[in-house]
Amino acid sequence: MEINEMYIFIGEESNFPAGIFTTLENAEEWIKKYSLTGILNIYPVDIGLYDWAIEKDFFTVRNDYQKESRFIQRFTCASMEHFHYENGELV
Questions:
Q1: The whole model's pTM is what?
Q2: Interior angle at CA 60, CA 43 and CA 42, nearest 5
Q3: DSSP single-letter state for residue 79
Q4: Could you give the count of Cα atoms lying within 13 Å of 28 in the half-sphere of its Cβ?
Q5: For position 1, what pLDDT does the model report?
């Protein structure tokens, strides 16, 4: 079975993922179990988010600093599919 995307949960006020799942169902079950608040993002597998966003035309490099490692290592993309949860419930 090839996995093309993963569900990554980042809890409110956290800088790091609290859970990584292969299915939305598994992620939501865990989020509900602990009444968690945060964001569940769908991340592509085997490609950096910066490269993925460029490949999908969600991001275009417009300035030289956007090619630098400092920018790329902190890059995020609002075009990623994501879900917001409060106290374990989808909002």
A1: 0.86
A2: 10
A3: T
A4: 9
A5: 66
